[in-house]
Automatic annotation (TrEMBL):
<comment type="similarity">
    <text>Belongs to the inositol monophosphatase superfamily.</text>
</comment>
<keyword id="KW-0460">Magnesium</keyword>
<dbReference type="Pfam" id="PF00459">
    <property type="entry name" value="Inositol_P"/>
</dbReference>
<keyword id="KW-0378">Hydrolase</keyword>
<keyword id="KW-0479">Metal-binding</keyword>
<protein>
    <submittedName>
        <fullName>Inositol monophosphatase family protein</fullName>
    </submittedName>
</protein>
<dbReference type="InterPro" id="IPR051090">
    <property type="entry name" value="Inositol_monoP_superfamily"/>
</dbReference>
<dbReference type="InterPro" id="IPR000760">
    <property type="entry name" value="Inositol_monophosphatase-like"/>
</dbReference>
<dbReference type="InterPro" id="IPR020583">
    <property type="entry name" value="Inositol_monoP_metal-BS"/>
</dbReference>
Length: 268
């Protein structure tokens, strides 16, 4: 008899992940229907664009979650926290309908739908879906997959050999910008504009290091189970686990050794 499946409270992680995949399948056709079409773009208070697609996807996903798990909490980018949700307690779904909205509205296919399942504030199941590319990463305790195949980080241990990603260098301000420049200069090469796609690439061994700032919980919670199960490390810039209350500074690395080297520079 094999080992018991990891559980999330009273639910098996595999069951939660299967439902997350159903949510992603529901989101894909909506994103594709709006992608590279004229869009009604609104600028939010944080200056990020919101589109009809964001709202349509989140409404659809929230409806499906409510129907399947009416007692679960929901925290979404566009519609906020479901009434009665206690994000640090019990089961909560954290969703970003379109991560990389700026990519979406400019026709760049590197946008994704992020779905995370948390229990007691801990991200246990995560999914990164790339609707325009037809690619998907999933993670749960003990298993990271790219499609149906295992995903594994590169294991890179040297900062001088690391392939470094960040979404936008101009997102770093003040002392964060100085820290970013020091870290970037210490790596082998730099790429920009990947949004959540970069984290999938890290999980599959194609990049080694990612540093970002100004993220929200719906931007990073789904990434945590994927990267950890793939053998990588992901924390805030102080080396602490990411939570719903983290300050938005994220550091992801392909190995503990690489993470420690990058963390030392960010702490300088």
């Amino acid at each position: 008899m094999g080992p018991a499946a990891p559980t999330t409270g009273t639910l098996a992680a595999d069951d939660i992940l299967a439902f997350a995949a159903e949510l992603a399948e529901a989101a894909r056709p909506i994103a594709r229907a709006y992608f590279r079409t004229p869009l009604d773009i609104v600028t939010k208070a944080d200056e990020s664009p919101v589109t009809l697609a964001d709202r349509a996807i989140e409404a659809r996903l929230r409806g499906l979650i409510e129907a399947r798990f009416p007692d679960h909490g929901i925290f979404g980018e566009e519609m906020g926290v479901k009434p009665g949700t206690a994000p640090g307690n019990g089961p909560v779904w954290v969703i970003d309908p379109i991560d990389g909205t700026k990519s979406f509205v400019t026709g760049l296919p590197l946008f994704g739908t992020l779905i995370a399942f948390l229990d007691g504030g801990v991200p246990l199941v995560g999914l990164i879906d790339m609707p325009a590319l037809g690619e998907r990463w999933t993670g749960r305790p003990g298993q990271a997959l790219f499609g149906a195949e295992p995903a594994r980080s590169s294991g890179c241990r040297s900062l001088s050999a690391a392939r470094f990603f960040t979404t936008a260098p101009d997102g770093f301000i003040g002392e964060d910008a100085a820290r970013y420049r020091r870290l970037s200069a210490a790596t082998a090469l730099r790429r920009f504009g990947g949004d959540c796609y970069a984290y999938g690439l890290l999980a599959s061994g194609h990049c080694d290091l990612i540093a970002e700032t100004g993220l929200q919980p719906y931007d990073y919670m789904a990434l945590v189970p994927v990267i950890r199960a793939a053998g990588g490390v992901v924390t805030d810039w102080a080396g602490a686990d990411l939570t719903l209350g983290s300050d938005g500074r994220v550091l992801a690395a392909a190995s503990p050794e690489l993470h420690a080297q990058a963390l030392a520079i960010l702490r300088e």
